[in-house]
Every structure is written in structure tokens, then in C-alpha cells.
Design brief:
Blueprint (H helix, E strand, L loop, with lengths): L14 H13 L5 H10 L22
């Protein structure tokens, strides 16, 4: 089991699921951490991995 904590001032639809899907590629050895960094910093969704399924993902807290 893994936990991913994502904090921000705002999120796009499926943004966290896209990040998690790309992190799964890193974990499986299909891309490197440097590849992830490049993808993340490019802000280009087409370069990212698959969207992670919603199963197991939940919103824990909203702070204002």
C-alpha cells in the first residue's frame, strides 16, 4: 500500500490522478525520477502517464 499526499492552492480535474498514474510508471521502472520531473515541469498532459483509477483515492482534507 502507498500513500501520496498532494497539497496545493488549486487543482485541475483529474490532476492528482494523472500525477499518481505517472508516479506508478516511476515505481514500475518504466520511467526514471528525472523523466517524472521533466514531465511534471513541462505541464504537458500528453507527456504524462495514464490516469490512475479513482479506486482507493480520496479527498482527506480541505483547509482554507
Amino acid at each position: 500500500m502507498a500513500y501520496v499526499l498532494v497539497e496545493g492552492t488549486g487543482f485541475l480535474r483529474y490532476m492528482v490522478r494523472n500525477i499518481v498514474g505517472t508516479l506508478l510508471l516511476v515505481g514500475s521502472g518504466k520511467i526514471s525520477v528525472d523523466d517524472f520531473r521533466t514531465i511534471f515541469e513541462s505541464r504537458d498532459r500528453d507527456r504524462a502517464g495514464p490516469t490512475a483509477p479513482a479506486k482507493g483515492l480520496f479527498l482527506r482534507e480541505i483547509r482554507y
